[in-house]
Amino acid sequence: MRMSTETPLGVQPKTAPGAGRSGLVLPGILVLLGIYLGVGIITMEVPEGAKHPGPAFFPILITVAIFVLAALLALQLVRTPEPVPADPQGYRSYSDWKTVALVAAGFLAFALLLVPAGWLISATLLFWTVAFALGSKNRARDLGIAVVFASVIQLAFGAALGLNLPSGILEGLIG
């Protein structure tokens, strides 16, 4: 029995030597980001009285995760490259610029509001904005989840690491 490799658009995919490897750009970017974070961790000034595991613990975990993700993604792309259609005109691309703009605006608002409004408010706004941008329709539930998530992160940094995130206008309530 012969199986058809025809795609839903009727384009026969083919994989030529070296084709479909443009996706290796993303693992490359991840490696550069990991190197940048690694240099930042190495040059980080850790205060003498910092509690264990210290302020470099989470950045180290994130950096290791970035390198592992880059390696796994590169391995997958090398082992199974993306099929290239016989007709290059068969590609249709779509970018959801509204979502990109909303997430970017959320990050910008987070950066601008972090010090004056504090972590809890600015992170809640960021998490809620990302959920909204990605299409969630239950605004009240998303706001509740965002508050809980931002609060848990604030408590983790304060209790587990001994680091205080900016309190902003909630200075007297959080500390």
Automatic annotation (TrEMBL):
Residue ranges of every copy of the DUF1468 domain listed in the record: 28-166
InterPro entries the record matches: DUF1468 (IPR009936)
UniProt keywords, alphabetically: Membrane, Transmembrane, Transmembrane helix
Record carries keyword Protein biosynthesis: no
Pfam families per UniProt: TctB
Highest taxon, organism lineage: Bacteria
Keyword presence, Transport: no
Spans traversing the lipid bilayer: 24-44, 56-79, 99-131, 143-163
Annotated protein name in UniProt: Tripartite tricarboxylate transporter TctB family protein
